[in-house]
């Protein structure tokens, strides 16, 4: 049996800097159309939901997210936890803004 595991992600990710997230609890690491990877000093329980404010190209998006996974940071240069969250209950307009942001950054990096 092979050790290969297919990529389970539904959408492509783009790296983002911390300024896209208006939060003192989290640092944004990357963003996709369906969610984000965050860094946190505190472990977060899978299934927990909370609100985040995302700042994308002059738009402030108040989003509810759900923790999909959480694991201890594995780098000697990083402390705390990394977590994956998915957007839940967002509007079509918010989805379009996020999708356009991601697509624009994919095109600029490619």
- End-to-end C-alpha gap: 34 Å
Instruction: Tell me the name of the CATH class.
Output: Mainly Beta
| Residue fraction in strands | 35-45%
Overall pLDDT metric: 85
The topology string of helices and strands comes to: EEEEEEH
What is the number of beta strands?
6
- CATH homologous superfamily - what is it? predicted glycosyltransferase like domains
Count the helices. How many? 1
Q: In which range does the helix fraction lie? A: 10-25%
Going across the major beta sheet, what is the strand order?
Answer: 1-2-3-6-5-4
Number of domains: 1
CATH architecture: Beta Barrel
Secondary-structure-derived class = alpha+beta
Overall geometric form: globular
Radius of gyration: 14 Å
| Unreliable spans | 1-7
Oligomer: single chain
Characterize the main sheet: 6 strands, antiparallel
CATH topology: Thrombin, subunit H
């Amino acid at each position: 049996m092979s050790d290969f595991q297919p990529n389970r992600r539904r959408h492509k990710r783009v790296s983002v800097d911390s300024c896209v997230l208006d939060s003192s609890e989290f640092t944004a690491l990357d963003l996709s159309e369906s969610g984000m990877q965050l860094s946190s000093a505190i472990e977060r329980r899978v299934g927990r939901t909370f609100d985040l404010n995302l700042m994308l190209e002059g738009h402030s998006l108040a989003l509810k997210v759900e923790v999909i996974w959480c694991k201890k940071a594995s780098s000697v240069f990083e402390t705390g936890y990394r977590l994956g969250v998915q957007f839940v209950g967002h509007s079509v307009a918010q989805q379009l803004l996020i999708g356009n942001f991601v697509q624009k950054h994919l095109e600029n990096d490619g």
